[in-house]
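Supplementary Text 2. Reproducibility record for the structural model of the 289-residue chain.

All settings were left at their defaults, and a single model was retained for analysis rather than an ensemble. We include the record here because the model underlies the residue-level annotations in Supplementary Table 4.
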Amino acid sequence: MPPELQPAAAAAVPRALPRVLLVEDDPSVRRLVALALDGQPIELLSCADGEEALALLRAGPVQVLVTDLMMPGISGLDLLRRLAREPALRQGAELVAFSAGIDAGMRQQLQALGVRRMLSKPVSLQSLEDVVMEAVASFAGHAPAGVEVADSRAAAAPALLLAPGGEPDIEPGPEPEPGHAAPADEARAIATHFGGDAALFHDFRRSCLPQFVVDLADGEAAFARADAAAVRRLGHSLKSVLATLGHAEASALARAMETAAAGGHLAAARAPWGALRARLQGLAAAAMD
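Retained model, structure tokens:
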């Protein structure tokens, strides 16, 4: 081949997209991440636990790994410890922790494991997109390393107009429709987590409704077999998804259930579960409409 044709031929070879691996056991959160990263020049891989993640990493390298911390089987923290012990498995991937309730102690643990970016659930789509794409750029050497985002909600949420009392200036509306949060609460969720894009919010909400049917069954089964770990995981995932959808009271119930189950107090977890179950039944009924 003549030398003058070689650059053109090389340019015709498509460059592989950066690979981002999401490790998250909650299907609703996986859908949220997919929405946030839709249209970005990346290949998004998703799996539900650390075991699947390890299999994917053995099959080929990724440039960014985003992981929840609390998952069944090999947890996100266990996965990160494994990567710290086996750097050849990590292959230099940028690490992002994406979980609810990352406190100061957990931040120290994560930093010791090489995690430089952290996102606390619930998070805005813009924050999620910004942090993941910054990690992609950092791997490619186009962004400064060592940037930590411990809680991106306050930093990236769009500003809301405040009334004199300091509350968002949203006009009170009618009673919520079945399966919906109160209109003012949905408006706050749209502004805070979806950048004001109501259509995106409602698309995400519709995608979540079938999962609430599954969550109801999983919760009943977990209490029936006295499985505190499963109750804790369910509360952990529900508190973030419900908050993202504007259901603040239901999110608080899920948090209370998680906290009680984390201490092994299943009897104490049953009270918030009873109230939360009624909320989930309303959401599950909306999925059947």
